[in-house]
UniProtKB/TrEMBL annotation:
Name of the protein in question: NAD(P)-binding protein
Species for this entry: Tothia fuscella
UniProt key word Oxidoreductase: yes
Keyword annotations from UniProtKB, A to Z: NADP, Oxidoreductase
Pfam families (UniProt xref): adh_short
Classification via InterPro entries: NAD(P)-bd_dom_sf, Sc_DH/Rdtase_CS, SDR_fam
Family: Belongs to the short-chain dehydrogenases/reductases (SDR) family.
PROSITE patterns from the UniProt entry: ADH_SHORT (PS00061)
Alphabetized GO MF terms: oxidoreductase activity
Length: 360
């Protein structure tokens, strides 16, 4: 930390931008006239509504997709009134249902001011009592089939969203492939996917195995997409909030946090806005926790009354510096093996593969 950022050849090839400079202000006005899809934005106290509220105030055109029609429609109406922005829309969407998400994207394109989509935020998520942690009734022959709604919403739903985003973002008229050299002041159209993970993406979470699994999956998706989605010209970023004071935190979670601290929605919105409003940020992850004053001692941060006030931290900042060096070396070995085997080896292996496909 604090060292000069020198990307390896692997990082350059992946097109990951340098670590986020938190001292550099972002311009939320850049979001004016951008067309954005946000899943799961119905709850007026949640992250999604926070994104909508701030970005609509900046002049963005937004489509909120949520399963809760009554609450979602009212939230959008309220935000329209608060911001004076009539370009905020609600579409009923169950992210677990493929056709429902297809309809969300189709409707979003219909109301787009420029006929395309600039950004997709995969925000929809659920938590609560999980079947894997329920007391077992050992008097029955076998347990009932568990309800995996958490996986269906938090992971399968996100995969559906990303699959559709990669299709529609490339069709965004006037947009260019993402680049770390992009100048937001001149780049008017974007192709951005923002994933919403969790601190549970990074470490275990007590009594929430399905939630933890789903959020680990979202982080894995992010780490893979940022290494490859630029091929489609799309940049991918992620936010990983700690326990934030929202209706999503169950009573058990609040009891665990008793005497401690939780994060604030406005800090989550701040982190998401920075990643969304700066088109030169590619492949970065931000963790949001309780705001605290800290100072740096070596490679660590410690609490200090005279320190800097922070709530947002970068995660996996050196991921490719550490990991991709191994990957490059391993790939070179594999390529070396292929080179030694030559065309004869390729033909032999190809024939064996075809034979296996025919005869099993």
């Amino acid at each position: 930390m604090g060292d000069t950022y020198t990307p390896t050849s692997g990082v350059k090839g992946i097109k990951q931008s340098p670590p986020v400079d938190f001292t550099k202000p972002y311009d939320v006005a850049w979001l004016k006239d951008k067309h954005i899809i946000i899943t799961g934005g119905a709850s007026p106290e949640g992250f999604g509504a926070g994104f909508v509220r701030k970005w609509a105030a900046a002049g963005a055109s937004i489509v909120v997709g949520d399963i809760n029609t009554k609450v979602g429609d009212q939230t959008v109406r309220d935000i329209r009134k608060e911001t004076g922005n009539e370009k905020v829309h609600f579409v009923q969407c169950d992210v677990r249902d493929w056709l429902s998400q297809v309809n969300l994207f189709r409707e979003a394109v219909k109301v787009s001011p420029h006929g395309g989509i600039d950004c997709v935020v995969a925000n929809a998520g659920v938590a609560g009592i999980e079947p894997l942690q329920m007391p077992a009734n050992l008097d029955v022959p076998e347990p009932k089939k568990p309800n995996f709604k958490v996986i269906e919403v938090n992971l399968i739903g996100v995969l559906y969203t990303v699959h559709l985003a990669l299709f529609w973002l490339q069709k965004n008229p006037g947009s260019k492939s993402c680049s770390i050299n992009t100048d937001p002041s001149t780049n008017k159209r974007d192709r951005h996917i923002l994933l919403v993970g969790s601190l549970a993406s990074i470490g275990p979470i007590i009594s929430q195995p399905l939630y933890g699994t789903s959020k680990h999956g979202v982080l894995g998706l992010f780490r893979t997409l940022r290494a490859s989605s630029f091929i489609d010209g799309c940049r991918t970023n992620i936010i990983c909030p700690y326990f934030i004071e929202t209706p999503m935190v169950p009573t058990a979670g609040r009891l665990i946090l008793a005497g401690g601290a939780s994060g604030r929605v406005e800090d989550v919105v701040d982190a998401a806005t920075r990643l969304t409003a700066d088109s030169s940020i590619l492949g970065r992850g931000l963790c949001i926790g309780p705001k605290a004053r800290v100072k740096q001692e070596g490679d660590d941060f410690v609490l200090s009354e005279n320190g800097e006030e922070k709530a947002i931290w970068e995660i996996y900042a050196d991921d490719f510096v550490d990991t991709e060096i191994f990957t490059q070396r391993f790939i070179r070995i594999l390529n070396g093996i292929a080179s030694v085997k030559g065309w004869y080896g390729f033909g032999r292996d190809a024939f064996a593969a075809i034979k296996y496909g025919i005869f099993g």
